[in-house]
Amino acid sequence: MLAKKLVALTICILTITGCSIKSDSAIQAAESNSETEITVFAAASLTQTFTEISKQFGVENPDIKVTISFAGSATLAEQIKQGAPADVFASASQSAMSSVVKEIPNPKTFASNRVVIAYPAANPKNIMASLDLNKTDLVWIQCDHQVPCGAAADKALAVDGVTAQPKSLEPDVNSVLAKLLTGEVDAAIVYLTDVFANANLRSLEFSNKESAATSYSIGTSDAASAAAQAFVAYVLSQSSQQILISAGFDAPSS
């Protein structure tokens, strides 16, 4: 009887020990498979390219999860100043980036873009020059003045002598583009990259391309992880630059 009890006790101990070892292994496996998450704030005009770049980054870094929030650069900068947890900020405006220098201390320029006058490929309003925006029967829109695409539009319009006012000022370039694509307006001031991405649109340049241009910069927060720094390095890499150039972006302006 005593022997049977000892055997039973031994089996019980082995079973418990086995369960304990299995539990430790499961914990170790979970820890090894855990992801590092980073939050990226990016200008709305980077929606297409940064979505592609983050996918490629994920293929090469499967242990890092990238979540991107797209909006106007000024809006994102304000959110960062109010304490929003952004590990990375990619801005289409140097002024927006400068406003968060305490939070994003060492940004690097990685691309440039410029605004153009976009219209449907059929060109029903026969838009041939920027001064056509002064026509009373032409309905056009642009980004709000504090947004990078709006600030660039303001400068380019002034240089070209356009005095007419847009029907509306939109919060970001995606909003401007959406109204143009749905036919709510005859023309819109958007980025050249937006025209590249939409085969049913055409565009014309402003007379002074420099006045219509804006530079993009990217940086990490002071407390950013190595994963966030790796993402920035990837954006600056040759493979990401090819994605940007293919989308119509130019190399960083001097």
Describe this protein's structure.
The protein is 42% helix and 22% strand. The longest helix has 32 residues, at 2-33. The protein folds into 2 domains: 36-112 and 215-246, D-Maltodextrin-Binding Protein, domain 2, CATH 3.40.190; 113-204, 3-Layer(aba) Sandwich (D-Maltodextrin-Binding Protein, domain 2), CATH 3.40.190.10. It has 9 helices and 9 strands. It is elongated, with a radius of gyration of 26 Å. The relative contact order is 0.18. It has helices spanning 2-33, 47-60, 73-81, 94-98, 148-160, 173-181, 192-196, 226-235, 238-246, and strands at residues 36-43, 64-71, 88-91, 108-120, 140-143, 169-170, 187-191, 201-204, 213-220. By secondary structure, the protein is an alpha/beta fold.
